[in-house]
NEBU protein (Burhinus bistriatus), 233 residues
Amino acid sequence: YREAWDRDKTQISIPSDTPVMLQSKVNALNISNKHYQKAWDEAKAKSYDMRADAIPIKHAKASRDIASEYKYKETHEKQKGHYIGCRTAQEDPKLSWAARAMLLQNDRIYRKAYHDSKAQIHIPVDAMSVQAAKECQTLVSDVDYRHYLHQWTCLPDQNDVIHARKAYDLQSDNVYKSDLEWLRGIGWLTEGSVDVVKAKKAQELLNERLYRTRPDEMKFTSITDAPDIVQAK
């Protein structure tokens, strides 16, 4: 199937001056990397002369000096130790101010006077604040507020002591229940008690048999000439 085409495609010849061929040559030149860099390669092959005092060189050197940390600190390093007007650090106002600020910020030195004087405080025993504190402590003290009865000393024949004893005896549970001690262990029947009698009376009142009388148990004789009997007949 392809034999005729494979044989004919090697025998095709196109003139070189046709528009298609010219356009393809121009396109090949445009996309050629070698042709694109030809001028640059020729410029690189030639030698160049750049003087040291050229403007770009001076600009690069100035930028390098400005950006250099050594050049930036060169003036400061030269001025170290050459203070004018102050022979010592204590005479320099800035150094003195910095030292004073450091002392104020130091916590140990800030509290040194307090720690030295806190153990040397002397308060008179009769000072108003001390007396007020003592009175307040006496008022709020639980020991002074409470006075237990066994701490008091009273005569046994005083009226208030006798009255207190009688009140204690009345309030005492042992004395209150002492009259019931003889009842312990004694059997007791509920028959005849108040609650039992009250329950029986209530049962009798609520008993339907005792409250109502059945008609068949009543003995009576009907009147034969009563109007309702006559009417019924």
Summary: The chain is about 60% helix and 0% strand. The chain has a mean pLDDT of 80. The radius of gyration is 67 Å.
